[in-house]
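Q: I have two molecules that I believe assemble together. Could you output structure tokens for the complex as a whole instead of separate predictions?
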Amino acid sequence: MVMEKKIRKALRRINVAKITQAVKKLFIEANTMLGDDVVCALKSALPREESATGKQVLEKIIENASIACRSIMPICQDTGLAVLFVEVGQDIHIVGGDLRTAIEEGVRQSYADGFLRKSVCDPLTRKNTGDNTPAIIHIDIVAGDRLKIIAMPKGGGSENVSAAKMLTPAVGIEGIKKFVLETVDQAGANPCPPIIVGIGIGGSLEQACIMAKKALLRPVGEQNRIDERVEQIEKELYQRINKLGIGPAGLGGRVTALAVNVEMMPCHIASLPVAVNIQCHVARHKETIL
Amino acid sequence: MIGVNKEINMGTERKIHTPLTEEVIATLHAGDMVMLSGEVYTARDVAHRRLHEALLKGEKLPIDLQGAVIFYAAPTPTPPNRIIGSIGPTTSYRMDAFTPKLLEQGLKGMIGKGNRLPEVVEAIKKYKSVYFGSIGGIAALTAKCVIEAEIVAYEDLGPEAIRKLTIVDMPVIVINDTEGHDLYAEEQNKWRIIT
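A: Yes, here they are, computed for all two components at once.
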């Protein structure tokens, strides 16, 4: 009895209504307010861009972000597939309903009330689901009694040119770089450069993809500080991608990528999984902790 | 360094009005900056499939393609007291499978982003038409060029429905012209540093 009481006391209760409300707010904010890190990166890219057209494109991108924020309009008409990363503290008790339903409801309300485009359809009939659900929800159980929600509207154009490949261990680090460069080069103007390149190395097929997507959540300009080798890969790929000549809007120039973010983990002795997740310049994500 | 002195025809913006004629199109060259005004239709993935299927069946199209310009776009919903939500180009290559047939039927211009398949570049040349590039991801800004918008076909497609937009001075750039040029490839090659 005493023990039971203790447990009950230790669990922090969160009502699902709060989660729905938070998700709704996050997707509207993410779609209308570009992060300061992205705006800063765009502004600091201006002097680096030697192409006059490229400069003009960057200026328009910056101007658009400011108009969108001021008039609460979506930065881009592609308000994305609703991707979420949710970290649930193990000392939380979710009450009033279930977590996934609450999140889906938040997405539904956000896209309806926020005048965001519903861009989800049946893969075969191509019929729109009408409310931008289902969302893509990644849930992790973590230590503590907090609930962290990261909302990431992901556009289709940049997702379409992303790729994952199971390389052979024999190709090594050079093989990884080659695959990334080929993927970015082939993407060209399609993903709305300047892009952010998220890369996952190692794990399994799906884990590499998740790492690549999570790498896109890192503030632009921050390097991987966990592994010096990874930092080196990021620096080299950033240099080489910006020599491809693709430039802003793909009209030629020096600024093709604003950042290259790599996450890495061990993998099977037989494998070398690599995933490249490309993000357009409208790099949107907002988070909150309940 | 390659390319530094070679620029796209900056500062030579031309004002052009739809519908497009072959005479006007003949004067457009890859790299020309154009301020486009007049009526354009929005149509993307599913709308293209439907238009294409209708043509194969010999049915009458719900829109008149003669001299028409299609904008590969689907806007966000229109909030109260606004003409349209945010709007901008989607990636064009997904429409490539349907494009030559539409060009054959009189379509003259397309607005999108990203490169086209060689057969589309060839069809643009053959049918004396033009592909304009527009900057992606600046949809709040582009929406300011739209002064009228109405759904004219395939309303059941929601955001993908065909809309007739009246635009004023929408900035676009000629990517593929009647001479077979491809601005993306040409500009990117100029700035590429092979190491």
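A: One point stands out. Residues 1-6 of chain B have pLDDT under 50 and may be disordered.
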